[in-house]
Amino acid sequence: MIVQTSEELKSIQDISDIVAITLKEMKQYAKPGMTTKQLDNFGAKVLKDFGANSAPFVTYKFPGWTCISLNNEMAHGIPSNRVVVEGDLVNIDVSAELNGFYADNGASFVLGEDINNKQELVDTSIEALNKAISIIRSGVKISEVGRVIEKTAKAKGYKVIKNLGGHGVGRSLHEEPECILNYYDRFERGRFKKNSVVAIETFITTNSTFVDTASDGWTLVGNKGGFCVQHEHTILVTSDKSVILTVKNGI
Ligand code: CO
Ligand code: CO
Fold first, then answer.
1. What does the DSSP assignment read for 29-96?
2. How far is the CA of 202 from the centre of ligand 2 (A)?
3. pLDDT digit string (tens) for 91-123?
């Protein structure tokens, strides 16, 4: 969406705060030994207390309130009876709707002790997200985001997923621009527009450049034995520094 009034700005900020607080509280709640369904139930309660709805459920009938993806899963993991264990790489993606406004927010983190040595991968993704957001202002080419994310990932020996991307958000979960890639695409001629709301996301991995849909019909997975991380903020594009609307998640 393009924000045109102060009322719209307040509405998009409100739902951005809600998804960010939910994500932060879910991260704090996550403990080895719990199921991803228990973690999702907790997130659902936080969202319901705010009066918000699950955006993937409202939009796609996703079977859960939030998406929880583990280890070599990149996105759209279904909350289930799977138990998370020490050292798992956990990704929580919270997107929600309130009064017709949508925001989208995600983060990966190492659960408990880092027995698989994956903190560097997580840190690289956060660095890539922050660097990408720092260059965005109105008039900047959308393709510059991919250039920055890919460069940051490759500098540490990691790969980026080529068939996923960030997106516009605001009056629905996915809007124009449709795919803000994680690599430089010279055919992408679009530029960021002033006062637009976009979700910027990283998709960084140890050994995959594409994701496939798992047999459950939802989960997007990378190659076996690998690890995938994602960090996502909803931002407001201005003619100067971008405003991170989901800043309350603390990533
Ligand atoms: Co998301
Ligand atoms: Co998104």
1. H--TT-BHHHHHHHHHHHHHHTT-EEHHHHHH--SSSSEEEETTEEE-PPP-SPBP-TT-EEEEEEEE
2. 10
3. 999 999 999 999 999 999 999 999 999 999 999
Q: How far is the CA of 232 from the centre of ligand 1 (A)?
A: 6
Q: How far is the CA of 237 from the centre of ligand 1 (A)?
A: 18
Domain ranges of the chain: 6-249
- Between CA 248 and CA 196 the distance in angstroms is 20
Q: pLDDT, tens digit, for every residue of 219-228?
A: 999 999 999 9
Q: Which ligand is nearest to the CA of 180?
A: 2
What's the CATH superfamily of 6-249?
A: Creatinase/methionine aminopeptidase superfamily (3.90.230.10)
Is the model's pTM score more than 0.85? yes
